[in-house]
Structures are given as structure tokens and as C-alpha cells.
Amino acid sequence: MNSLTKRCPLRSILAGLILLGCLGAIGCQSDFSGQTLPNWGYMTDDVQYFAPGPEFKLAKEAAAMKAQSEEAALQQRR
Asked: What was the pLDDT predicted at 28?
């Protein structure tokens, strides 16, 4: 056997591994210049919906503080 026939399977294996590595990298979510780009299956992905909540997150605490201050004002008036 000469060296060309010995190297041919090695080249085929190496080319196959490189091709497999390239195919594995395709479709991954990536980040370019601060912008996240979607992966290959973004069109078939299920959409999650989160209902909008109250704009002011501490509404109960603010109402409790207001009631407490009004009660304190009434106590001072007596």
C-alpha cells in the first residue's frame, strides 16, 4: 500500500467530522452586535403569553400606607 491510500480514509474521516461540526453549528441561537437572532425552529415554537399585570407593582402596599396615614390624621384631630 502506498501513502495515498493510507491517507484517504483519514481524510474522509476528517472531512466527515468537519462537516458534522458545521452542521451542528447551524441553527443555533446567536448574538450579533447585541441583537439575539432566533434559531432555525422559531416559526414552529409555541408562543407563551403572559397577561399584563398592574403597572404599579406596589398597589396594595400604597393603599395600606394611605389608609394608615389617614387613620393617623384622624387620631391627631381628636
From this structure: 65
